C-alpha cells in the first residue's frame, strides 16, 4: 500500500468535517483538517448558533411588553445592539475554541489554511506545501448566493449580518426562505422597519401551506412588509442609505439589504473537477449512498453535496463516513422523516409530508388540527394563534406528517418527530393522556 502523509485529510472544519475528523481519529486514523476561516463552520460561526442567540435576544421585546400584563413594573427599556452583538460573538469565539480543543484532544492536526485538491490523493495548502492522504473528505459547506444585479456589492449576506456596526433603521431582506424569515423576525423585534422581497409569492417553500400562511399573516400583523413577485433591477447608494429598484414596483429607500436567496455548494476553485470529481449543475459534489464521489479516494459530506442543507444531517453524514471507512462499522444515513424548524417569530417546525405532498402521494388523507391561542398569549392580550396539524394516511391513520407554528414549536416537534419516524398512528397520540396545561397537549387532542 502506498505510503501517505495521512489516512484522512478533511477540507473544511464545519459540522460534518469536524465530526468525521474526530471519529476517524478515534478509530485510529492519522487525520488532518484544513480550515481557512474558523473551526466550527457555518453553523457555529455564522449560522444556526449566533442566529439562535439573536432570536433569544430579539424575543425579549415581546417578553418585556407582555410582562406588564403579568404584573411586572417594567420601566421603559432600551435595546443596545453592540452589547448583544459582542456577547454573541464572544460565545462564538468560545465555541470555536471548544471545537479546536476537541480536535486537538483527538489528535487531529488542524491546518488553518485554505486547502485545495491537487489529485486523487493530494492536497495543496495555500502556503505552498503539498501533502498526501489515502482518503480526502470534502466538507466545505455552502456559500450565500448573491444576485447578479448592478450594485449587489452594497448588500450583505448572513456571513456579515452578525457583525453590523449599528442596528439598521430600514432593512430589506431578499428571499422568502429560512434566513429571510428568521432575520425578518429578529430585525423587526429589535425595532427595525423590515420589508421582505421575494421573486415569487411563496415563503418557505417546502413547509406545509397552512403553517406558512399563518406565519405570513402573523408577520404582516406585526408590521413586517412583504413584497412579492419582485426582481431586483439595481441597488445604488442614496444619501446615507441605499435605493433599491425593482422590475415591477416602486423603488425602496433602505439602510441595509440582506441577501438570503439560498446557499450554493462551496466548490469553486477547489480543484475537484481537475481531479476527476463529478459536480452537478449547481456545483455540488455528486456522491453515492456512502458519500463517495466519482473518485474512489474522495468523499464529501454536508452542504457541499446539496442533499439536505441541515447541520444535524451533515453531522450524521460525517459520522457514517468515518465509521464506515475507518471504523469497520458500515452504516448509511436515513433521510426519511427529517424534522426541521424555522426560528421565525413565532417559530414553526415540521416533519414528514405536508398535506399537499401527502395528497399527491397517497390520494386520500385525513387531516387533524388544532388552531388555538396559547394561554400565555391570552393573558398578554396577544392575538397570535398557534396551529398544529397532523396529516394521516386515510385508511390506516398512520401519521405521514406533523406541522406546527406557535411558541416553542421546534422544542415540541422534536419529541413528536420520534413518533412520526417510528410510524405511529393517530390513535397512539389519542391514547396518550394530555399533560395539562401545556401547548404540547394539543397534539394528543387533535380533531
Ligand atoms: P432558502 O433555500 O431557504 O430560500 C431561498 C429563498 O430565496 C426562496 O424564497 C427562493 O424563492 C429565493 N431564491 C432562490 N434563488 C433565488 C434567486 N436566484 N434570486 C432571487 N431569489 C431566489 O435559502 P436561505 O438562504 O434562506 O437558507 C439556505 C439554507 O440554509 C436553507 O435551505 C436551509 O437548508 C439552511 N438554513 C437552515 C436553517 C434552519 O434549519 N433553521 C436556518 C437558516 C438556513 P422561491 O422559493 O420563491 O423560489
UniProtKB/TrEMBL annotation:
Binding site for NAD(+): 175-182, 262
All copies of domain Pyridine nucleotide-disulphide oxidoreductase dimerisation, residue ranges: 338-444
One BP term from GO: glutathione metabolic process
Names of the cofactor(s): FAD
Manner of cofactor binding, per the entry note: Binds 1 FAD per subunit.
GO molecular function: flavin adenine dinucleotide binding; glutathione-disulfide reductase (NADPH) activity
Secretion signal span: none
E.C. number: 1.8.1.7
GO CC, one annotated term: cytosol
UniProt keyword terms in alphabetical order: Disulfide bond, FAD, Flavoprotein, NAD, Nucleotide-binding, Oxidoreductase, Redox-active center
PROSITE patterns xref list: PYRIDINE_REDOX_1
Residues annotated as binding FAD: 52, 303
InterPro entries: FAD/NAD-bd_sf, FAD/NAD-binding_dom, FAD/NAD-linked_Rdtase_dimer_sf, GSHR/TRXR-like, Pyr_nuc-diS_OxRdtase, Pyr_nucl-diS_OxRdtase_dimer, Pyr_OxRdtase_I_AS
Ribosomal protein keyword on record: no
Location of the FAD/NAD(P)-binding domain: 6-318
Disulfide bonds: 43-48
Catalytic residues, chain numbering: 436
Family to which the UniProt record says this protein belongs: Belongs to the class-I pyridine nucleotide-disulfide oxidoreductase family.
NCBIfam families: PRK06116.1 (NF004776)
Protein name: Glutathione-disulfide reductase
Gene source species: Sphingomonas horti
Gene: gorA
